[in-house]
Amino acid sequence: MKAINLTEKLSLFSDHWSPKTIGQFNGHDLMVVKVEGEFVWHSHPETDDLFLVLKGEIDIEMRDRTVTLREGELFVVPKGVEHRPVARSEVHLLLIEPAGTPNTGDPNTAAKQVTI
Fold this sequence. Notes:
Strand content: over 45%
Number of helices: 1
Number of strands: 8
Shape: globular
Distance between the termini: 15 Å
Radius of gyration: 13 Å
């Protein structure tokens, strides 16, 4: 057991929209990700989707409204709600999801799970 330095983990990669697993917690993956631009519209039928902003600002667009998150803020998209994250410049996020949850809600189009 040792502390996980989020800044150090984020320095290990530069690709966007490809979450990296940095640990586990009660059956959940702890992940960091860098994002920029628009992600695809998607939903997660079985689980909520948590976004915690470590650096930058991101809009979480839903069909009926948009929530803007800044550094230190988090938002939970309820399961089944269609949404699309949009980052106008690079944003660093911490994600906590049930282990193996596909980032698009569909295993056929999701980024591969990578541990760093």
